[in-house]
């Protein structure tokens, strides 16, 4: 098992969901441990990386944080194609965002990698007093669709790292390593700007 720690396994992970549900805030909290009350909307998609050290291996997430606005929907397949994992985010205070999350799950199941690990994240759990989507409803939906479910708060950091760790544990432990790295420790990289994507730290 120790031999597996020589270099991380690289996995593409995409975040999908309606605008302003907190996708970028979740990524920023996970990668840099930061949260800002106001974020600009993501244009296209932002690309960041972060590694997670498990007991038997290290997983490097290559994270695509996609824009939630409807006008960017047609670009989504470019980002989720080939993804090993996807986090579909909704806002627990918005039933519309939950309905939109369900449509993203259907799209991933129909067009994505058949082995993709899908996690449903009910974000903004710190706003429980304004809750419109009950956790039992989301959990039942997740169970029926054989996907993960967790409520998170980018603001308080509740369950953010846990979400990514649980995803990492569900990914295969043997995979072609495209970009090996010698570090097996938690490592934070600054956001990179892709040629086809603009960077943003927004909650979109």
TrEMBL record:
Its main location: plastid. GO terms for cellular component: chloroplast. It is found in: Plastid, Chloroplast. GO terms for molecular function: GTP binding; GTPase activity. CDD domains: Rab5_related. Keywords: Nucleotide-binding. InterPro entries: P-loop_NTPase (IPR027417), Small_GTP-bd (IPR005225), Small_GTPase (IPR001806). The keyword Nucleotide-binding applies. Residues 171-204 are annotated as: Disordered. Residues 173-186 have a biased composition (Polar residues). NCBIfam families: small_GTP (TIGR00231). This is Uncharacterized protein. It comes from Guillardia theta (strain CCMP2712) (Cryptophyte).
